[in-house]
Every structure is written in structure tokens, then in C-alpha cells.
Amino acid sequence: MRVFVTGGSGLTGPAVVAELIAAGHTVTALARSDAAAARLESLGATPHRGSLDDLDSLRRGAEAADGVLHMAYGGDFSDLDDMMRRDRAAIEALGRPLEHSGRPLVSTSGTLVMPAGRESTERDEPDTAGIAAFRIAGERACLGFTARGVRASVVRLAPTVHGPGDHGFIGMLIATARQTGVSAYVGDGGNRWPAVHRLDAAVLFRLALEKAPAGSVLHGAAESGVTLKSIAETIARRLDLPAVSLTPAQAAAHFPSPFMATVYGFDAPVSSSYTQELLGWSPTHPTLLEDLEHGDYLPPPTS
In terms of residue numbers, what domain contains 231? Predict the structure, then answer.
């Protein structure tokens, strides 16, 4: 399959590009800089110069492809309406060339769109007033192409996509612990975060492109919920720091922003049972806590 990818040079993207190429697919990927183009070429992909705002470039990339994988998402988080607008416009540009062809369009969202406080499944409705509600518009834009003859599906990634070189939420937790001298969690730390290893996520994206039925919503979570207390305590032990509980007000001052404090206190476990059964996806790589113990997040234990 000739696959056009956006976000192929990001944090998760290179693993996905490598997975697609290893499976025999030909990958052309959006590159907005020379560095991104060089990274893609090193993986065996063909760079396609452009950006998410260059809608003509997106259309040309999709027109030449047998399938499209949209992972890129960007903009100014202080203007969520603009981010949603840009994402919808990009999805529309990518999807139109696929209309009435049965070709796949896979878009990316996050499991934090789901309601808090209970384990959600792929068939549950996202929370339109929730912490990540700004991602729902992109989900709907993608799935709307199902009625236009496109094999459209959405992959909701766990908030923690872990693996070498991760600078996401877990990296921020570790950096904050180093800066403040404590490894913190909010309240009793019992709130749960889904997690998935980057290489398992890459396999899921490939399977979605290859065989996800039209209209599928998929959960990219190998672990349904890892408690923030267990994460903070592992970080504390490895850095030889105390693990401490913070009130929400204390957390707002401790973490990089009040929004991040809310995120770190969010309880949002999800199930991926339907995804695993539907696609035969079986995560095999280390868990989040195993990665914290043996990966590159923290210095190795002293003997």
C-alpha cells in the first residue's frame, strides 16, 4: 500500500513509519522542515514538503496514496478553537481525494476525550465537556467520511505513549521532580492513566490502515490504567527523592501550569478489548512501570 502520513517525524511517527515500511508498505510523509525530511529519509520514507496549513499539499499527498494516516496535530494551546479548525480543515483536505474509493483514512485522537472516573470502552461516547474535548471535532470530521465511501477510523492514543526519547507527560513529571526535589501526585494518587509502548502503538496504526472497518473507533492502550501514585513513587525511588501528595491547589503551583496539574490529577482508564479483538492487536512491549525501571527515562540503579 502507498501510504501518506502526517506527523511521521514526530515522537511516535518514526516508529509508525518504520513499522509500515517493515510490513512492505511504501511511505510518503509530510515534512515541514529540512530536519524532518532528513529524519524521514533515514527511515526509508519519501518526504513530501508542506504543512498542515498547506491544504493543497495535503490533497496532493492523499491523491497519490492508497491510504492516509493523519497523526500531526499542532497550534497554540491558548487558542483551542483555532487548533480544532486547523485539524478539521486538514482532515477534510486529506479525506476528499479518498471519497467513494474505499481507501482508508486513519486519524488520531486521545483517550483523554473519554469521561472521567470510570473505565470507558471504544463504544462509549466521548465527553464533550471534558479535558480533551477539543479533539472530538477531529474525530467526527474523520468518521464523517464513512458516509462518503472512505474506510475511515480513529485511533485514540493513551496519554502516555512511552519508549526511548519520550518527552511527553512522563518526561515532564520527571523534569518537575528534578527541579522541585519531590515526586508529586495529586490527592491519593489513585487516578489512572492508560499507557502504551510506542512500538505497540505503531503496530496498531498499521493494523488500522490495513483492516479496520469503516467507522471504527480504536483505543491505543496496552494498559487500561496505571495509577499516578505508582508512577510518582517509581520516579521518587529511582531519583532518591520523596514522593508527596499535593492538594489540587498545591498541584496548580507545583506543576508547569494549572492545566498540567489538572491533567496529572485526571482519572480516565479505558479498555482496548474491542480493539484487540477486532484487529488481532496484542501488545507485547514493556509496560510503563517496566520502562521507568529499565528504559532511558531515569539513570540506571547504582550497584
Answer: 164-194+224-269+286-294
Phi-psi domain of 251 (left: phi exceeds 0; alpha: psi -120 through 50; beta: other): alpha
pLDDT tens digits along 184-219: 999 999 999 999 999 999 999 999 999 999 999 999
Q: What is the 3-state secondary structure (H, E, C) of 39-61?
A: HHHHHCCEEEECCCCCHHHHHHH
Beta bridge partners of 154: 107, 217
What CATH number did the domain enclosing 184 receive? 3.90.25
Statement to judge: residues 218 and 98 lie in one domain: yes
Nearest one of 150, 198, 213 to 295, comparing CA atoms: 198
How many DSSP H helices and E strands does the chain contain?
Answer: 12, 12
Phi, psi at 42, each rounded to 5°:
-65, -25
Clarify whether residues 52 and 120 are in a common domain: yes
- DSSP H or E stretch at residue 261: helix 258-264
Contact between 121 and 67 (Cβ < 8 Å): no
Instruction: Let me know if residue 280 belongs to a domain.
Output: no
* Tally of domains in the chain: 2
SS3 7: coil
pTM for the model:
0.96
137 CB contacts (<8 Å, ≥6 apart)?
84, 87, 88
Same domain, 114 and 179: no
Asked if residue 189 and residue 206 are part of one domain, the reply reads: no
**Structure confidence by residue, pLDDT tens digits, 79-105:** 889 999 999 999 999 999 999 999 999
